[in-house]
Amino acid sequence: MSACTWESGSLLPLSLGPSVCTTRSVELRLGAACRPVVLAKDKNKLVILSEAKDLIVQSFAKASPSSRAKCVASLRLLAYHLSTPLRSLCGKFSPSPPMNTQPLAISPTDRLFLLTGAGVSAESGIPTFRDSNGLWCNYRFEDVATPTAWRRDPQLVWDFYSMRRRDAAHAKPNPAHQAIAALQHRLDRLFLCTQNIDNLHELAGSPRVLHMHGELFKSRCESCTRPPFDDAQLYQPPAAIPRCECGSQIRPHICWFGEVPYDLDEIYAALDACTIFLAIGTSGTVEPAASFAAHAARRARTYYVGPEPPVNLRVFQQCFLGKAGQILPDLFAAP
Predict the structure, then answer these.
(1) Does the 112-331 domain belong in CATH 3.40.50.1220?
(2) I need a labelling partner for 154 at 20 to 30 A (CA). Which of 94, 201, 241, 324 fits?
(3) Active site residue 213
(4) How many CB atoms lie within 10 A of CB 21?
């Protein structure tokens, strides 16, 4: 059943284990509204029993796509809580903000894979796409972040990325970026992969960063093999869209929806070699990055740091809930 067609009293498509308790009272956030919910097990499914269920369904129908996605993630998390013994939960989560977080145990032979997402940049004031006041509130991704959008209206695309360049130019690295950079200088065997297109990791001093979704302050030719080049210009009217020496238009060096992320061979080689995988500020909803933790979990210890539990919560051995800028300095402290 599709999440957007839930009806009052219908069962939510979530599988629960046999140990699930009979009922549990929780609060479910939908946008700015917080609704009381009583959940129960019914033939290994999760069902809303509270009198507020009609309001929840109505709110869900009116909510933005980002709010609905968060709602689905919250319900999946509730299913996890209901079907997991308390002892396991106590070992899986650290308090938020953390109190006296112990440094991560890293041996001389460990290989680290760090994946950072929009939550890290958000702590520097860069808006994310999925927040209620995020980038998609004013733009549809179909209009500014797809190859079709570029072919249809390259000026609108450049208007959007010029705006993003202007906003990102004022952002400064936060303590999370600085803690990652400091750890990278201490450890040669650290692979830093980011879903973010800003340059805050570099500004914080990280010497090696793989931007799987491209770089905001770089451009490239739409046609020829000229390598991407540094470019901080704003291409908004009356400025014309730049052209390459070959005559084709210059586009942002961004991996748009429908395109293949960059350097996947290098990324998966690092995932196969890592013994510690740490996801920071990423929701676990965007593929292929959302699958990296499960890929690494076959041989690596897996950790998550972020303000909210990710959708792919189950693949992490331990979650540290809170701002990355508050958690990472302690987590990465030298022993």
Answers:
(1) yes
(2) 201
(3) yes
(4) 12
